Amino acid sequence: MPAPADIALIDGSVYTLDPARAWVEAVAIRGGRIVGTGSTADIRDLCSTATEVIDLRGRMVVPGFQDSHVHPPMGGVEMLRCDLSGGHSRQDYLETVGAYAASLPDVEWILGGGWSMPAFPGGVPTAADLDAVVGARPVFLPNRDHHSAWVSTRALELAGITAATPDPVDGRIERDAAGQPTGALHEGAMSLVERLLPPLRTEDYVQGLLAAQAYLHSLGITAWQDAWVTSSPGQNSFEAYMQLAGDARLTARVVAALWWERGRGAEQVDGFSALRARAAEADRFAATSVKIMQDGVCETFTAAMLTPYLDAHGHSTDNCGLSFVDPESLREHVTLLDAEGFQVHVHAIGDRAVREALDAVESARAANGPSGLRHHVAHLQVVHLDDVERFAGLGVVANFQPLWACGDEQMMELTVPFLGPERSALQYPIGSLQSRSVPIAFGSDWPVSTPNPFAEMHVAVTRVAPAGARFGADPGSVDEAPFLPDERIDLASAVRAFTLGSAYVNHLEAETGSIEPGKRADLAVIDRNLFEVDELDGGVAAAQVIVTMVEGEVVFERAGS
Ligand SMILES: [Zn+2]
User: Is residue 194 classed exposed, middle or buried when 0-12, 13-18 and 19+ CB atoms within 10 A define those classes?
Assistant: First the structure.
């Protein structure tokens, strides 16, 4: 007779992702691991009077979700600052900024972020609007995707940005017809102001991470890959993770993707190795990935494209966007990182950036042979048909942020007109890559967009934005039809991408990602069966998490449930 279970979950609909038995009624947990799955009667046999028995009352249980591309320190810090992510219009934002500024009269800089471009004419906010609510105080507010910042006139003055300031090579200052800066900074231009900000202390990151972790657990997320971990003074999210891991406050499993500074080269790899060695001592934390940002975003014409963007009249321009790392150097860096045993996590949005990322992995394969490191390319907005065929052969994981794969305003107004019909039809090819046996992982890119896996899976299966996920005042312009419906995937595949798929990227699939005896008891109880949802009731996107467990320990419980 084996030792009895500590915890038994009974009378539920447990979706295991175990190929041997996809659905069971009950799960037994001992010492933080799953020790049995089966019928309620089977699991009762593993219980003693000391076992804590939780009656699921028919509710669905899934493996804990894993977010393969997320920025919790940044998201958490922003949650605790001037948080614009709940707003939907210019007016909402200005009210929030004004109230926040008034609440902190003695703080010099107004910081926070989370605005969305479609809330502004042409996607561009102005300093004049901010000045009207904060007066002469400096303001720096990145948007949701962190590729642009909204700044006040005082911030422009402090940074010395005038009509005479040239655009930096990796960015753009938004200007009026006379060349005067108007209050939006894109990509590398953001750093003209960012370098003036008071540095974040490690303690700020610790508090931000705790807030983020609690929020992500409330959405059933038990593990993630942090797509931007730095260890520089004033930006030390690495140390914050180490502190939380050191005193057992890290309740999620985290793989850090260490930030590749694109102004530097191979000399930074020794530093990465030192961080990896330190993290290897920590519980639930590893620093085995390196993040390289290869381009910007389509909406600001900074994503790297194989052919030029169109202008507002549909005419070709001379702008093909930006490759942040020149492709030859990218090949060298990826080959070196691969040889050193680091996974590479590339941000690539435009078709040229995707191709450059695949070329770099191809170079690494040629130089180093197979590595098993599971390099991944995140975002994958525009993928040339030739490159769709290359992922599987190179063993590259497709890391999608499925929430973006719909015809919302950002897509229909700020992207499609400037890509033109042919390239617009190559966006977010989740179905095409899956059908070519490419491993798929899902992530949110929070705080860029919601980290709610149900909203993200909803779009993956419907290619339509969930209700309430839209921004701006002109819903008439939103395409309600499925966006490139051939790229839809089924719900089972979407759940897999958020569990086993992301666990694969994080090299955690032997321990997590499914509900099978021997694995860690990381799981979520949800309020409805995702496979039996009512579209009129909000569909998959409306699901809510009731309880989240990590190693059998409750890390989130919905009040009143
Ligand atoms: Zn990101």
Answer: middle
For residue range 434-471, list pLDDT tens digits in order: 999 999 999 999 988 899 999 999 999 999 998 755 43
Q: How far is the CA of 446 from the centre of ligand 1 (A)?
A: 7
How far are the Cα atoms of 7, 44, 298, 533 from residue 55, in angstroms, in the given order? 11, 12, 48, 22
CA 345 / ligand 1 centre spacing (Å): 10
CA 4 – ligand 1 centroid, Å: 44
Record the pTM: 0.89
Among 96-105, 110-119, 468-477, whose mean pLDDT is lowest? 468-477
pLDDT at 477 over 90: no
% pLDDT > 70, the chain = 98
CA distances from 403 to 275, 313, 451, 454, 466 (A): 32, 28, 9, 10, 9
Residue 110 has pLDDT above 70, yes or no: yes
Task: Give the strand order in the sheet containing 65-70.
Answer: 65-70, 221-229, 253-259, 285-293, 343-348, 376-379, 397-400, 440-442
DSSP β-bridge partners for residue 8: 28, 53
Query: How many angstroms separate the alpha carbon of residue 27 from the centre of ligand 1?
Result: 35
Report residue 300's pLDDT band, with 50, 70 and 90 as the boundaries. Answer: confident
- 424 alpha carbon – ligand 1 mean position (Å): 22
CA–centroid distance, 68 to ligand 1, in Å, is 10
Q: In terms of DSSP bridges, do strands 13-15 and 23-24 run parallel, antiparallel, or are they unpaired? A: antiparallel
Other Cβ atoms less than 10 A from the Cβ of 210: the count is 18
Centre of ligand 1 from the C-alpha of residue 400, in Å: 11
Whether residue 535 has pLDDT greater than 90: no
Here the tokens at position 171 are 């960015």
Please, which residues have CB within 8 angstroms of residue 476's CB and are 6 or more apart in sequence?
A: none
Q: Is the pLDDT of residue 501 over 70?
A: yes
In angstroms, what is the span from residue 144 Cα to ligand 1's centroid? 10
Q: Is the pLDDT score of 474 beyond 70? A: no
| Ligand 1 centroid – CA 85 distance (Å) | 16
Cα-to-centroid distance, 416 and ligand 1 (Å): 21
Res. 20: pLDDT tops 50: yes
How many whole angstroms from 444 Cα to the centroid of ligand 1?
A: 8
Cα-to-centroid distance, 518 and ligand 1 (Å): 33
- What does R_g of the chain's alpha carbons equal in angstroms? 23
In the predicted structure, residue 18 carries a pLDDT above the cut 60: yes
Distance 477 CA to ligand 1 centre (A): 27
Q: What's the chain's average pLDDT?
A: 94
Across the chain, how many H-helices and E-strands are there? 19, 24
| Closest-CA residue to 55 (of 405, 379, 406, 525) | 525
CA of 69 to the centre of ligand 1 (A): 6
Give the sheet arrangement for strand 148-151, strand by strand: 82-83, 110-113, 139-142, 148-151, 181-187, 171-175
For residue 70, the CA-to-ligand 1 centroid distance in Å is 6
Query: Which residue is associated with the tokens 């694109």?
Result: 262
Cβ neighbour number for residue 493 with a 10 Å cutoff: 19
